[in-house]
Design brief:
mainly alpha; two-stranded antiparallel ribbon; 2% strand; globular
Length: 199
């Protein structure tokens, strides 16, 4: 999603809101108000996505038919599919929608195998991977080695996703984001067969 928003939608980050805050602040300090808004709106959309996921959790956590995280994944998939229909004349709207979906993702999926991870950014995972690798080696702790493994895999997955995104953008342009929707729909279906998913 970051590769798509950055390469195809005007060099705005969908996931890495740190980059958006930085670029927003730089444009603001230079009095470039219009350019600043290109980064401010995705930040606000990201926050709205986090809020929506929190509401979904609150209102649907007790439901038995669908896991609340499945609803989040379904929302994400639909939002990204809609974005594929947007022309580059409305990149700001497209970036806001992608950031909104990323906000949902960040709030709904914060752990893998009981390990804290960031599913849409790398810095925390890089720190955790190195710290846990060192402590796992020094203290021989299985838990630390497991944390390092999960964190390194997340960073690798992010890098592979960026490569795939770049390749798909060259071939399919706006429609390349549909690959993310397909992956999310596969996850949605797979969650029906994962009774151990935490509520």
């Amino acid at each position: 999603m970051d590769a798509y928003s950055y390469i195809y939608r005007g060099e705005v980050f969908a996931n890495a809101q740190t980059g958006n805050v930085l670029l927003f602040s730089i444009h603001l300090s230079n009095g470039e108000w219009v350019e600043a808004l290109h980064y401010a709106f995705p930040i606000m959309a990201f926050l709205c996505g986090v809020a929506l996921a929190a509401f979904i959790c609150y209102f649907f956590k007790k439901r038995k038919s669908l896991h609340w995280r499945q609803l989040c994944v379904l929302f994400e998939a639909m939002i990204l599919a809609v974005v594929s229909c947007f022309s580059q004349d409305v990149n700001l709207l497209a970036n806001c929608c992608i950031s909104f979906a990323c906000g949902i993702q960040v709030e709904a999926f914060r752990k893998i195998e009981n390990e804290n991870v960031a599913t849409t950014m790398c810095i925390g995972n890089l720190r955790s991977a190195m710290h846990s690798a060192i402590t796992g080696r020094v203290m021989g702790s299985y838990k630390d080695r497991h944390t390092a493994y999960i964190s390194f895999v997340m960073v690798l997955a992010f890098a592979v996703g960026a490569v795939m995104g770049s390749v798909l953008i060259q071939r399919f342009g706006a429609y390349s984001i549909c690959c993310s929707s397909i992956i999310l729909l596969l996850c949605f279906g797979g969650m029906f067969f994962s009774p151990s998913v935490e509520r």
